[in-house]
Structures are given as C-alpha cells and as structure tokens.
From TrEMBL:
Record has Glycoprotein as a keyword: yes
Transmembrane segments: 6-29, 41-59, 79-101, 122-141, 182-202, 235-257, 269-292
Subcellular location(s) of the protein: Cell membrane
UniProt membrane topology term: Multi-pass membrane protein
GO-annotated molecular function: G protein-coupled serotonin receptor activity; neurotransmitter receptor activity
Alphabetical list of PANTHER family matching this protein: 5-HYDROXYTRYPTAMINE RECEPTOR, HISTAMINE H2 RECEPTOR
Principal subcellular localization: membrane
GO biological process: chemical synaptic transmission; G protein-coupled receptor signaling pathway, coupled to cyclic nucleotide second messenger
Native organism: Astyanax mexicanus
Sequence similarity: Belongs to the G-protein coupled receptor 1 family.
Domain annotation G-protein coupled receptors family 1 profile: ranges: 21-289
Protein known as: Histamine H2 receptor
Source species, domain of life: Eukaryota
InterPro entries in alphabetical order: GPCR_Rhodpsn, GPCR_Rhodpsn_7TM
C-alpha cells in the first residue's frame, strides 16, 4: 500500500513537471524578445510534442503502472493510445533532425540564413514532420502491419472487459516491423544528426579562427558576439540531442532485441524502466534550456517572478492616481505638485534601474 502511494506521488509529480516545464518553454519563447526568432519555432514544436505527451500519454501509462498493467478502456482506445505514443516519439526525433539542419544553415551560411530559412518554409517543415509522424504512428497499427499474424491488435475486447486475468494494453510487433521502424524512425535520423553536428562543430571552429585572424581588434567585438551567440545556441541544442539519445537509445535497442527474438510478451519490469527513461526526456528538455542558455534563463526568471511587470504596474498606478488628483483640483499649491513630480520621477528611475539590472544579470 505504501509503495503504491509512493509510486503514485512520483508519477503524478513527473507528469506535472513535464506539463509545467514545457508550458514554460512555450511562454518563454512567446514573451521574450530575444527568443522570438524563427529558429526557435522548432524548439516550440518540440515543447508542444513533449506537452502533448504529458497530457495524452503519460497519465494513461501511469494508470497502467499503478494497475499492474490492467487496461479497462477497451481495445480500440488502447490502439489509439499506442498510436499517439508512437506519433509523438517520431515527431520528437524528426523535430530534432530539423533543428540540426537549421543550426547547420545558421552556422555555415549566416549571411544567407534569413533568405533560406523563412517562416513559410519553417511552417512547411513542421507540418511535414507532424504529417509523417501521424502516418508512422497510426497507419501500421490500424492496418495490422506491426503484428506477427498481420491482424489489427486488441480488437476483440470492449470497454470494461478485463477478462478473467485482466487485459493489458501493449504494443505488439513482429521482427521485420521492429527492425524497419527502429531504423527509419530512430537510428537513421540519429546518424544524420550526429554527422550534422560534427560538421557544425568543424565549421564553427574554422569560423572562429578566421574571425580572429581577419577582423581588426576595434571592430572584432560585434562580429565575435554574433558568432558566439549562434555557437552557444548550437551547443544548447546539441545537449538536447545528447539527452534524447541517452534517454531513448535503451528503449530502441530493447525494442529491436525483443523484435528479433519474436517476443510478444516482453518482461514488464525491463519494459517499464526503458520506457519511462524515454519519457524522462520530455521533462528534461525544459531544464536543459535555462541551464545552458542565458536568454532562456532570463525569460524563465521574468515569467516566474514577474517583478518588472509588477514594478511598472505599481508606478503607473501611482502616477495615474496623482494625475487624477490634479484633475480634481486637489493640488492646492505648486509646492505639493513639485513634491509629487519628484516622487514620480524617482519611482520611474527605480523601475528603470530594475530593468537594467535584470538585463545585466
């Protein structure tokens, strides 16, 4: 009983962290002027993917864990749940692939980047990723291509029918499907991304050497600052890729191993460990952004504290109140007006100093 309660608390906390963290990423990009760049559209797409995972998949997976694998919502809803899970995982890996391509274009051709990476092209790329992910997630399971006998899985039981020993909702596969799916949706994109980031680091190192050699010292700071900003963004996103590999690689190795052995009932403990390790990546990304990127750190700080907004609101309220006093004839002499004018000036000065300090920190 105690272990179940602890498990329940941990799973709920994990789901809340995943949802809250990815909502924070979306708000940070939407409210911060420094983060409102075309390249961060892919970051928002990745955060939306993780957010949907936290809202649609993790609660059902946690319910399966707490009920020892028993599923009472019927076979059709089980298939939808599995399809959405596969779709979101596929969307994550291909969004990371798009991010690596975007970073390569930004580093290798900074002068032509704005011409090559335009809002319509980014929207087309994101739409294509989601369309492809839906196809990979829904079509094989709906057509029965993933099962050993090529029949649609979990279609023989209705909602509330748990059978004598309890029915479980699991992802069935045959060995050919497991190999093909893992290669096309994980290992191939992963190899491309690793090659892309290796190329990025080579180009970045060469650019830094050329800038130091060719730029006069009195104008070097601006060029170095712009290049450094792109390189730091690339390092942040490379760390996100590294976290994705660490979290999801064990699951796909296990997935291929079970497929090769034609195991239809994999060990529940090992499956739960590698699956939740993969899910952990969705909660980890919102932590990596502020840890490695100062712009995200500032945006998070402003969203969580809202100190600047409160300061300006208080100053504006005090000013409006004093103006109303003027219009109502409550200021009787010039001395009182000067006193209020000075006070208002000091409040505005204090608010400006707070803004400056937040930009420096």
């Amino acid at each position: 009983m105690v272990s179940t309660a602890v498990q329940w608390v941990v799973l709920v906390a994990f789901i809340v962290l995943t949802i809250g963290g990815n909502v924070l990423v979306c708000l940070a990009v939407g409210t911060s002027h420094r983060l409102r760049r075309i390249s961060n559209c892919f970051v928002v797409s990745l955060a939306v993917t993780d957010l949907l995972l936290g809202l649609l998949v993790l609660p059902l997976t946690a319910t399966l864990e707490l009920r020892s694998g028993r599923w009472s919502l019927g076979g059709t809803f089980c298939n939808i749940y599995i399809c959405v899970d596969v779709m979101l995982c596929t969307a994550s890996i291909f969004t990371l692939l798009a991010i690596s391509v975007d970073r390569y274009l930004a580093i290798s051709g900074p002068l032509s980047y704005s011409r090559r990476v335009t809002p319509p092209r980014v929207a087309t790329a994101i739409g294509t990723i989601w369309a492809f992910s839906m196809t990979v997630g829904f079509v094989p399971i709906d057509l029965g291509l993933n099962t050993a006998d090529f029949r649609v899985q979990n279609m023989v039981w209705e909602i509330g029918d748990e059978g004598d020993e309890g029915r479980t909702c699991q992802y069935e596969w045959n060995n050919n499907y497991a190999l093909l799916d893992a290669f096309l949706t994980f290992f191939l994109p992963l190899l491309i991304m690793c090659g892309m980031y290796h190329r990025i680091f080579l180009v970045a190192r060469e650019q830094a050497r050329r800038i130091r050699a060719a730029t006069p010292s009195f104008i070097r700071s601006a060029s170095v600052a712009a290049t450094t900003r792109e390189h730091k963004a690339t390092l942040t996103l490379a760390a996100v890729l590294g976290a994705f590999i660490i979290c999801w690689l064990p699951y796909f190795i296990y997935f291929m191993y079970m497929g090769l052995r034609s195991e239809t009932n994999p060990p529940s403990l090992i499956h739960s460990v590698v699956l939740w390790l993969g899910y952990f990546n969705s909660a980890l990304n919102p932590i990596l952004y502020p840890a490695l990127n100062r712009d995200f750190r500032r945006a998070y700080s402003q969203l969580l504290r809202c100190r600047t907004a409160q300061k300006w609101a208080a100053t504006s309220a005090r000013t409006s109140q004093q103006e109303r006093r003027v219009s109502n004839g409550k200021l009787q002499n010039k001395q009182e007006w000067n006193k209020i004018h000075v006070a208002t000036h000091l409040h505005l000065q204090e608010a400006n100093s707070d803004v400056s300090l937040e930009h420096i920190s």
